[in-house]
Amino acid sequence: MRAVVVTSFGGPEAVEIVETGVPEPAARQVRIKVAAAALNPVDAGVRSGVFGGAGKRLGLGWDVAGTVDAAGVATGWTVGDEVVALAYGAAKSLGTHADYVVVDADAVAKAPVSVDAVHAATVPLNALTATQALDLLALEPGQRLLVTGAAGAVGGYAVQLAAHRGTAVTALAREADAELVRSLGAAESVTGPVAPGSVDAVLDAAVLGAAALEWVRDGGAFAGVIPQAQPASVRGVRTGAVEVSPDGARLAELVALVDEGVLTPRVAETYALDEAAKAHARLAEGGLRGRVVLIP
After folding, report:
1. DSSP conformation class of 242
2. What is the DSSP letter of 233?
3. What DSSP assignment string belongs to 17-41?
4. Measured between alpha carbons, how far is 49 from 238 in angstroms, rounded to an integer?
5. Which residues pair with residue 190 across a beta bridge?
6. Are the C-beta atoms of 235 and 213 separated by less than 8 Å?
7. 270 vs 293: CA distance, rounded Å
């Protein structure tokens, strides 16, 4: 089968397509025939060496939508099930950017029925990151949350999930994205500056760090999206950063919200698997509203 990997670090030119054996699922694992797999900034980070692993073959891809092709014992899944999953890890030898991928059975959820596999592939990593970041903030209904990078993939899901929970959301986004973020449920859209101490919490999807922390009231909360990279606490503000974890049960809840129309998967562009390097180059250009998705 084909798989997208890096064996040396660099830009999009470091991306390789290799032929490798089809992986076999062990107990409590399933093999998924990939129908679509999103390309995320974390993949660019792996490719460029941010997470280490020099001298190893590193497989790219965390998100997958596809069909269960084989199942080990005690999985609860059946060959033919249409599913989505998060294949966690920056140092795996094979990722979801491949013809097949093996994942732990408890990282899998049934695919949404209201969208195609290409759109479904944008859900696992980004929506799980958003909901787990909101869990860190532990806001009460009616409290005011500011989401930075609100027009992006994680930020957009965070706006929708927070609004669904009854949180008053202020979206920090470009003026050109104001209509978009309001359509996602933001009560207001701002381009900045934001008044210091004016919100109960910040979900920092744009990775602004200490600058965004200043906008939180004394005793409020801050959640970042890069593990252990949150700014130090000031003024009694509780700070943390989400390290996304695979969670099939939680993913199933998010899939249900997709089917209910609460969450809106967004696809910017699609590329064939063999065009993975071109997809990385497009991601590096920026300006995307939605995810780039690879299709085997």
Report:
1. -
2. P
3. EEE-PPP---TTEEEEEEEEEEE-H
4. 30
5. 172
6. no
7. 5
Looking at the chain, which runs of residues are DSSP E strands? 2-6, 16-19, 29-39, 58-59, 63-71, 82-86, 100-104, 108-110, 144-148, 168-172, 188-190, 199-204, 216-224, 238-241, 267-272, 291-295
CB 173 within 8 A of CB 158: no
Structure tokens at 36: 């679509």
3-state secondary structure of 6: strand
Residue 239 near residue 233, CB atoms below 8 Å:
yes
Tokens of 273: 């698997």
Domains for the chain: give ranges and CATH numbers.
2-123+265-295 (3.90.180.10), 126-241 (3.40.50.720)
Is residue 34 within 8 A of residue 101, CB to CB? The reply is yes
pTM, two decimal places:
0.96
Q: Which residue has the tokens 């084989």?
A: 70
pLDDT means per 10 residues, the chain with 296 residues, are: 98 98 97 98 96 94 98 95 96 96 98 98 98 96 95 97 96 96 97 93 97 97 94 96 97 98 98 98 93 98
Nearest to 58 by CA among 34, 42, 35, 72: 42
